[in-house]
Amino acid sequence: MEFNFSVNIILKDVITKVDSRLQVCRNAGARYQDARQRLFEIIDTMGDASAKAQGLPGAITTGRKLELSDHHLYVMTDPEGKEGLGAAVGILKIGRKRLFVYDRHGQQWEMNPLCILDFYVHESRQRMGCGRRLFDFMLKDENSCPQHLAVDRPSHKFASFLAKHYALRDEIPQVNNFVIFNGFFTKRPDSD
Ligand code: ACO
C-alpha cells in the first residue's frame, strides 16, 4: 500500500510495534502532530483494506481506536517500496480479552488470553511469507506461543495459515467467536 508521503520517515523499521503511546510519533519531536496524522493514515488505510478483505462492514483497526485501547499493532513495511519512500505491507493487531473458555471436558474457565484481533497482508504480497514474518515477530515480542493464543473469527486464509505454519488444526469448541486450539491450556503463563 503506497502513500503520497514517505512511509519510511514514520516507520523506520521493517516491523514496528505501535501502541496507544504512539512512540514512533513522539520520536518526531516538534513534528509530532504531523507524524501522528500520517501514522493514522497508514493504519486507517490498512484497517479499511483488512475489513474489505474479510467482508466486514467496518474497520476493526483504526489509529483512533488504537490510541484509546491497550492493544498492540505490528505494522510491516517494505522500505524499498514506491521508489524508496516505503510501502505498507501488513498489520497484526493483538490484545488481551477477558474470556470464558471451555476446555475439552466442557469445563469453563475465566481467562485473560492474548487474542489475535486483526491480521492483514496486502493482496500484492500474500503467500510470500510476509504474514509468517509478522506473526513470528509478534510471538517473540510478546513472549508467547501460537497454541496459547485465542483468535477472533479466523478467516479461511488465516485458518489455513495457522494450520500450515504452526500445525494449529485441532480446535476446542467454544460458544463465543474466539477459536482456540489443542495445547491452549498447557503450560500457560500465570498472567493469563
Ligand atoms: N487461500 C488460502 N490460504 C491462504 C491464502 C489464500 N488465498 N493466502 C494465504 N494463505 C495461507 C496458506 O496456508 C498459505 O500457504 P500456501 O501458500 O502454501 O497455501 C499461507 O497462508 C502463506 O503464508 P504467508 O505467506 O506467511 O501468509 P500471508 O502473507 O499470505 O498472510 C494472511 C496471511 C494475513 C491471512 C493473508 O492471507 C491475508 O491478509 N488474508 C486476507 C485477510 C484475512 O483473511 N485476515 C485474517 C482475518 S481473521 C483475523 O484477523 C482474526
Could you please describe the fold and organization of this structure?
The strands form 2 sheets. The protein has a 7-stranded mixed sheet, with helices on both faces. A two-stranded antiparallel ribbon has the order 4-5. It contains 7 helices and 9 strands. It has a single domain (7-181), classed as 3-Layer(aba) Sandwich (Aminopeptidase). 33% of the residues lie in helices and 24% in strands.
Which band does the percent of strand residues land in? Answer: 15-25%
Write down the overall geometry.
Answer: globular
- Please give the radius of gyration in angstroms: 17 Å
Q: Tell me about the biggest sheet?
A: 7 strands, mixed
CATH arch. level architecture: 3-Layer(aba) Sandwich
CATH class: Alpha Beta
Strand order of the largest sheet: 1-2-3-6-7-9-8
Tags for this entry?
7 helices; alpha+beta; two-stranded antiparallel sheet; Aminopeptidase; 192 residues
What's the short story on this structure?
By secondary structure, the chain is of the alpha+beta class. It has helices at residues 7-10, 23-26, 32-54, 63-67, 81-84, 130-141, 156-166, and strands at residues 15-18, 72-78, 87-96, 99-102, 108-111, 114-121, 150-152, 171-172, 178-181.
